[in-house]
TrEMBL record:
It is a multi-pass membrane protein. Keywords: Membrane, Transmembrane, Transmembrane helix. It is found in: Endomembrane system. It comes from Aspergillus brasiliensis. The keyword Transmembrane helix applies. The chain crosses the membrane at residues 6-23, 30-48, 72-93. One of its GO terms (cellular component) is membrane. This is FAR-17a/AIG1-like protein. The lineage of its organism: Eukaryota, Fungi, Dikarya, Ascomycota, Pezizomycotina. It comes from the Eukaryota. InterPro entries: ADTRP_AIG1 (IPR006838). Pfam families: Far-17a_AIG1.
Length: 118
């Protein structure tokens, strides 16, 4: 129980506090969040399958129990849950810190050419 709290609950709580109180607003919308979540989820799945090739066992028993189709569904569902969590946290950030102005953003992080030279 203590390890589970230390590995999962404490980092989640600290990251939530960081997000709500110390971070700037997120610029990601729903579809890019779903694309990013899908990339992470299926990238992790491919890594797990690669490790299985070398080790002969999965790190979690559920991966063995559900079979190939079940793993596809499990990771697809994980991607959807991650995207919904992103949307929920973005909404929660707006409720705590305000939604900002209705003005359209003039620049976008990472868009060096459209933002101008440094």
């Amino acid at each position: 129980m203590h390890a589970d709290v230390g590995f999962h609950a404490v980092p989640s709580i600290v990251l939530l506090i960081d997000l709500l109180l110390l971070s700037p607003p997120w610029t990601i919308s729903v579809l890019p969040a779903l694309a990013l979540s899908s990339t992470i989820a299926f990238g992790y799945w491919f890594w797990i399958e690669r490790c299985f090739q070398f080790n002969g066992w999965y790190p979690y028993p559920v991966f063995e129990a559900v079979g190939f189709e079940g793993r596809v569904g499990l990771f697809a569902l994980s991607a959807i849950v991650m995207a919904l969590s992103t949307g929920t946290l973005k909404w929660l950030y707006g409720r705590v810190n305000g939604y900002g102005t209705s003005a359209k953003a003039q620049s976008r992080p990472g868009a060096i050419k459209s933002n101008g030279n440094i």
